[in-house]
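Write out structure tokens for Alpha/beta hydrolase.
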Amino acid sequence: MTRRQVRTPHGPARAELHSAPEGRAALLLGHGAGGGIEAPDLVAVTWAARDVGVHVALVEQPYRVAGRRAPAPATQLDAAWLAVAEELGEHWFDGLPLVFGGRSAGARVACRTAREGQAVAVLCLAFPVHPPGRPEKSRHAELDEVDVPTLVVQGDRDPFGRPRAGHLREVVTVPGDHALSADVDGVARAVGEWLDRVLRPLD
């Protein structure tokens, strides 16, 4: 495991790099709005990805690196994410296809930046479809705008809602709430199988 600081337009971000023995692709994973890269589902997915030959970069947004708990505005999050993806793509994962992913708010960033960042697939853990109790405030359009293979892993009791499956988008439901900590083995299994399948045509 290697840690690397990356300059972005909104301050330094940090990437924790976990290399697979023979990398076929790289998965960039972002954290939730109020949490960090140590979330149980992110840790489980890191190991699952490495087991199928995918390098992983756990990305800490600049506001977290600076010690702030409140997230930055979406435009800043997206710009910082794209800066990290560009830096790692050029200097660490040179020539490898990139998969964008994250949990909760990090999943939203992955969706919004997938096209500009030329991601080959998107992984969403606990995508927050709407604020709890506010289904009229839907963020489903962010998912619908993704035009590459997408996996959403969602808890069956997630108060942030449940996304719809769609063209190129698979939804896997596991026991638990928004934390996805009740069945991390199930989360890891779903992600590992999906990564192996969607990356096979690129091998």
